Amino acid sequence: MLLEGRTAVVYGGGGRVGAAVARAFAGEGARVFLAGRTLARLEAVAGDIRAAGGSAEVAEVDALDEPAVDAHADAVAAQAGGIDVAFNAISHGDVHGLTLSDLPFEDFVRPVATALRSQFLTTRAAARHMTRQGSGVIMTITATTARLSIPQVGGTGVAFDAIESQSRQWAVELGGHGVRVVWLQTTGLPEAIAGADVAQPGYGTGSEAMTRDELIAWNQGKALLGRLTTLAEVGRAAAFLASDHAAAVTAAGLNLTCGQAPGR
């Protein structure tokens, strides 16, 4: 198994992305620690992992709370003997559907500030333990919104750009300690889009709104493979990138965009 004997912390482990990554990590032999704000959702994911024969523990942690993040990482490292992998899957509170001219600044800056704070705090907390042991992998997720020119997505693209930039800086500072910093770049995730319970904004298509199916089809039309990244693919790619098979990869994202590119 790719991650046998490793200890992995998944922040936002109760969400769709965090749960998929946590299940993949556990399926590859990692001991998984799920952290998030909603204990019931974390317990549900942990129950699935245990039922499949994996190891999972949960803790209620707000990734924007500096003392709480540090204390949790310290507790995990003390219990498990270290931290080998940290994955940030925290949501950012994005607001879509308005042009920037109509968007309140607070709604624009929220995903940027949330993304940068949670990434910084979780990365720093894990890095302090990884640098002492001389190894580790710090991971997060971004999307093609960071590269495509898409209207009406508020601060989402800026937030993903900033995540990637911060990751590169962490990689420069941690590389000499044997710690890799990487990210997964995806399309919109169909399971997440399909889970939305309201009509989606038109994103500059000329329509005031699209149905969920129309939004999925619109995204698929921008991908060379004609489809979108799945949660299962995110989980499998995360497990690979966290493993020794990807030991030469740092300061870079794994392209899971199904061929979405600027200009498409």
Describe this structure as you would to a colleague.
- The protein is an alpha/beta fold and 264 residues long.
- It has one domain (7-256): Rossmann fold (3-Layer(aba) Sandwich), CATH 3.40.50.
- It contains 8 helices and 9 strands.
- It has helices at 16-27, 39-51, 66-80, 105-133, 156-174, 190-194, 212-220, 231-242; strands at 7-11, 31-36, 55-60, 85-88, 136-143, 179-186, 200-201, 209-210, 252-256.
- The chain has a 7-stranded parallel beta sheet with strand order 3-2-1-4-5-6-9, with helices on both faces. Strands 7-8 form a two-stranded antiparallel ribbon.
- It is globular, with a radius of gyration of 18 Å.
- The termini are far apart.
- The model has no long low-confidence stretch (mean pLDDT 91).
Write the SSE topology:
Elements: E1 7-11, H1 16-27, E2 31-36, H2 39-51, E3 55-60, H3 66-80, E4 85-88, H4 105-133, E5 136-143, H5 156-174, E6 179-186, H6 190-194, E7 200-201, E8 209-210, H7 212-220, H8 231-242, E9 252-256
Parallel strand pairs: 1-2, 1-4, 2-3, 4-5, 5-6, 6-9
Antiparallel strand pairs: 7-8
Helix pairs in contact: 1-2, 1-8, 3-4, 4-5
Summarize this, please?
By secondary structure, this protein is α/β, with parallel strands linked by helices. It has 8 helices and 9 strands.
Based on Cα principal axes, name the global outline.
globular
Query: Mind telling me which CATH architecture this is?
Result: 3-Layer(aba) Sandwich
What do the pLDDT scores average to?
91
The helical percent reads: 40-55%
Low-confidence stretches: none
Tell me the CATH topology: Rossmann fold
Total domain units: 1
Top-tier CATH class: Alpha Beta
Number of strands: 9
Biggest sheet layout: 7 strands, parallel
Straight-line N-to-C gap: 38 Å
Quaternary class: single chain
The number of helical elements comes to: 8
